[in-house]
Amino acid sequence: MKTIQYLFFVAIATLLMAADCSNKDSEFYNDVFVSKAGLVTLEKTPSTITVIATIPRLLEVDNQANLFDIFKTTGGATKMIFSYVVEKQDTVGNWDYIEVPSANIVITKGESQTGSFISGSAVYNSTTTNYEYSVELQSLTSGNYRLSFGFNNNTGTLVTFRSESINNNLFLNLNTTTAPLLDSGGFYPFTII
Q: Distance (Å, rounded) from C-alpha 8 to C-alpha 177?
């Protein structure tokens, strides 16, 4: 009889724990999602394209009375990571991913690594209290190109930054738009002369 009582309590406890569990990854991984428009700027010259991100530590967020403090919320994250890809149109109109050599990247602010995509890090500047990134892609051969920010996300026309949080602190996923805006396919088309 005691065995049946123990099994009954184990079964009830299991059901209660299962009812309390969530299958949302964002709850398990301590993710916070915030949107703020216009934090990325794309600057084009006839021979270069520059990607600039300026993310203030204190963000005005819709429907929030207080400013959102990125640095405090993430436990002192010093970087906001994002990625983008560059494609070039071939002679028959197809788009091919290109690997931009590190020698063709001029880093003014932040950090950047190349490969099959470009990984950018907007680095926290305690003097300006902004997360900053400015990278110029130069020495690209002439032709039609397009840039997109969807390599590590599926947000389409948005750029997603993820905080490099440490320990058990919250991870911030920050969605933003570019200026000029990406087209409906999530691309910024440009031509190099």
A: 54
Q: How far is CA 82 from CA 113, 120, 180, in A?
A: 11, 5, 18
Sites in the chain below the pLDDT cut of 70: 1-29, 151-155
Cα Rg of the chain, angstroms: 22
CA distance 111 to 52: 12
Contact 30, 169 (CB under 8 A): yes
Tokens representing 158 are: 């948005």
Q: What is the pTM of this model?
A: 0.83
Distance of CA 145 to the CA centre of its chain: 21
The region that residue 4 occupies, defined by phi over 0 for left and psi between -120 and 50 for alpha, beta otherwise, is alpha
Using DSSP's 3-state secondary structure scheme, residue 13 falls into helix
CB count within 10 Å of CB 46 equals: 9
Q: Please enumerate in sequence order all residues whose Cβ is within 8 A of that of 167, keeping only pairs 6 or more positions apart, or say none.
A: 75
- What 3-state DSSP class applies to 138? coil
Predicted local distance difference test score (pLDDT) of residue 64? 85
Q: Which helix H or strand E contains 152, and what residues bound it? A: none
For residue range 105-134, list pLDDT tens digits in order.
Answer: 999 999 999 988 999 999 999 999 999 999
